[in-house]
Amino acid sequence: MPDGPMVGILGGGQLGRMLADAAKTLGVRTKVLDPDEHASAGRVTTHILGAYTSPKALAALAEGCDVVTYEFENVPVEAAERIAETLPVHPTPEALRVAQDRLNERKLFGELGIASPTSVAVDAEHRIESALSRVGEPALLKARRLGYDGKGQFLISGAHDIADAWRAIAGAPAILDAFVGFERELSVIGVRASNGNCRFYPLAQNVHRGGILRVTTAPAPNVPEALREQAESAARAIMERLDYVGVLAVEFFQIGSDGDARLVANEIAPRVHNTGHWTIEGAPASQFENHIRAVLGMDLGDTTPAKPSAMVNAIGELPEASRVSAVPGAVLHDYEKAPRPGRKVGHVTITADTPKELHERLERYTRVVG
Ligand SMILES: Nc1ncnc2c1ncn2[C@@H]1O[C@H](COP(=O)(O)OP(=O)(O)O)[C@@H](O)[C@H]1O
Ligand SMILES: [Mg+2]
């Protein structure tokens, strides 16, 4: 029997690992490039240990692949571009370039008519005061590049915080974002096939603590049809503009409620996303499966949710497996990463037959596990 197709993945964290697991179920082989010898995906697939800037390592990744993708948006764009000289890279290196820089993301939103928080670019400490008077107080100073899990951000309550904020982000080029008093956070995960077909998972509701995602509930409860349309058309417009193939996540804030509810877009992720992990148990085709399908030019799988689901991140350390299994419908995913404060080391998905049952199970989970 001939070998199945092969997908190379830049980045070998838990996202690469879950991509590799999904690929296996489709008869697709994978390998990952990651500079960390303990990379999570290295436990389940071939791991090329090397730097993203090493031509030798990039060539070793590309060797024998049909397509290359990425699971980490801080891979240098040059790495993706270099591979794109000889192989298809999906999503395009251009998507990576946009998503690496908050200013580029916000410019793209503006060009596509997608509402986002009021923000001003700042590249010097003495410019923050006038920026603050434009966006209003409080405001969030966010480094344009390399932020994740709320890192590289500082809340400015008034002019007295400016020096601390600038120091906290190490004087990096930044945007100053109006602080949005949102009703809740929602995200949409879309996938675009090579023939331009798009599918969307239902909007997910996300609760962050300290800038880190804690709990996702999907489908998000009480989403007016207009909001779903707003989210999907934003994601579709972004994917079309970027000639995108693969999974894309867009994070939103919901402002106002019921009839007055509207969305403002915060950021995009050009990859599979933490707010879509629930799709492994909660949808017929997971975001990981659909990403692999898309980048290989296969037909997309069904994104209609099968069950109300919740996903709880394990941050710092894993919960005890016996406690997790005491909660009906709960499944533990262990990324096999060393415990460390603030680090995502696994997640638990809880599914149920009804939203009410899901709520009860989630409450029970919080009581039993914490
Ligand atoms: N303008 C804002 N107003 C209010 N809260 C915000 C704003 N920007 C970010 N946050 C909060 O911080 C979290 C992380 O910020 P985000 O911009 O998504 O960066 P990242 O996820 O890359 O760390 C958001 O999910 C949200 O909870
Ligand atoms: Mg975010």
Q: How many strands in all?
A: 17
Largest sheet: 9 strands, antiparallel
Bound molecules: adenosine-5'-diphosphate, magnesium ion
CATH architectural category of the largest domain: 2-Layer Sandwich
In the CATH hierarchy, the third-tier topology of the largest domain is known as: D-amino Acid Aminotransferase, Chain A, domain 1
> Which structural class matches the secondary elements?
alpha+beta
Assign the CATH superfamily of the largest domain: ATP-grasp fold, B domain
Task: Flag low-confidence runs.
Answer: none
Question: What multimeric state do the chains show?
Answer: single chain
Q: In CATH's first tier, which class of the largest domain applies?
A: Alpha Beta
Topology:
Layout: E1 6-10, H1 14-25, E2 29-34, E3 46-49, H2 55-62, E4 67-70, H3 77-84, H4 93-99, H5 102-111, E5 119-122, H6 128-135, E6 139-143, E7 153-156, H7 162-168, E8 174-178, E9 184-192, E10 198-200, E11 204-209, E12 212-218, H8 225-241, E13 246-255, E14 262-269, H9 279-282, H10 287-295, E15 309-315, H11 321-325, E16 330-334, E17 344-351, H12 355-369
Helix pairs in contact: 1-10, 3-4
Residues 251, 267 line the site of magnesium ion.
